[in-house]
Amino acid sequence: MSGVELYANELINYAQEHPCLTVIFVILVLKKLFNLFKRGKSLKDEVVFITGAANGIGRSTAIRMAKLGAKVAIADIDIKKAEQTAKEILDLKQRAIAVHCDVTSIESVNKATEFVRSHLGNPTILINNAGIVSGKSITELSYEAIERTFKVNAISHFYTIKAMLPDMLKANKGHIVTIASVAGLGGVSKMTDYCASKYAAVGIDDSLRNELRQQKSAVKTTCVCPYYINTGMFDGVSTKFTFLLPMLKEEYVSEQIVEAIRYNVPIIMMPRIMYLAIFLKGLLPTCAIDIIGEILGLQESMETFKGRA
Ligand SMILES: NC(=O)c1ccc[n+]([C@@H]2O[C@H](COP(=O)([O-])OP(=O)(O)OC[C@H]3O[C@@H](n4cnc5c(N)ncnc54)[C@H](O)[C@@H]3O)[C@@H](O)[C@H]2O)c1
Which of 33, 121, 177, 189 is 20 to 30 A from 234 via CA? Predict the structure, then answer.
């Protein structure tokens, strides 16, 4: 038997022994191949409104989209940092403006939307990215902190979507992006407010996608569910088994977000092993999932959390 035949036989044996893993692998390969033959949509002259874009993922995604020809609105409560990000983009000879926007205020969101409309045009891509985390156990959390987490991470999405979706529907073109988290797909200790708000964000995206499909609208949605990222928001968290669950890099995450928008992907999870984890979550009993979470160190990851100084 030749070396190639031996190798092929081993692969066939492996596939027969691990049918679930094989199916997932084949789906991922087909998806990748399909994308290779598809041309992603152009971002040239799109008007992108990104909340929380002064720092972290929002900032990195804004720069990336501007480099692809989009006009970018850096909407943030931190106007000084938003102006710095906009300047960085202008220095690259690309188009951007900074706009003050507190996503927890309907008035502020509407004012910021109007400002962007008059300077860049109607937003055609909305990225709901602004987010906060408390990192406390439920008994330590104040009611104010719980409400603020919900307002920033979830309720604000209604404000921005209601401000920008009507124009997208009229034009029958647009994209609404939800920066959620894997914490919106599974619960983690010391994150009750954060996880609940991210579950809500995932729910908003899921319903909105179906609502748009029912209306036969061409407006698209993308839900982004990453694991911990090195932006500083989750400074101090511990991660075990980094080969399985690495701390994600900001640049990698923003690249994946832009690709998902260009290829109209409805939901992305990072790292890729999360697709398997969510598949198993639906398959295995809760006690098994809880034990796996403990073994992987997920449930103690927030014990060393410091967050932004
Ligand atoms: N960092 C991670 O590990 C991680 C993991 C998964 C998901 N996420 C999500 O990704 C998104 C971006 O996170 P990041 O790591 O870049 O965080 P970050 O702290 O670096 O940036 C968040 C931005 O949101 C802004 N913001 C906060 N409150 C606001 C408000 N009321 N109005 C407007 N802007 C406001 C902040 O000023 C900041 O610029 C968040 O929604 C977060 O929950 C982050």
Answer: 177
- CA distance linking residue 33 with residue 25, whole number of Å: 12
Q: Are 262 and 43 in contact (CB under 8 A)?
A: yes
Evaluate whether 149 touches 187 at the Cβ level (below 8 Å). no
* Per-residue pLDDT, 30: 79
Query: Do 161 and 290 belong to one domain?
Result: yes
The helix/strand/coil state of 249 is coil
Q: Are 158 and 228 in the same domain? A: yes
**Distance of alpha carbon 229 from alpha carbon 237, whole angstroms:** 10
Question: Rounded distance, CA 231 to CA 247, Å?
Answer: 10
Residues with CB under 6 A from ligand 1: 51-52, 54-58, 76-78, 101-104, 129-132, 152, 179, 181, 226, 228-229, 231-234
- Residue 195 Cα to ligand 1 midpoint, Å, equals 14
Q: b/e map of 156-183 (b: 16 or more CB within 10 Å)? A: bbebbbebbbebbeeeebbbbbbbbbbb
Look up the domain containing 1 and give its range: 1-32
234 inside domain? yes
Does some domain include residue 309? no
298 close to 273: Cβ distance less than 8 angstroms: no
Phi, psi torsion values for 128, nearest 5 degrees: -80, 95
- Give the residue ranges of the chain where pLDDT is below 70: 1, 35-36, 309
CA dist., res. 130 & res. 109, Å (int) = 12
CB 82 within 8 A of CB 88: no
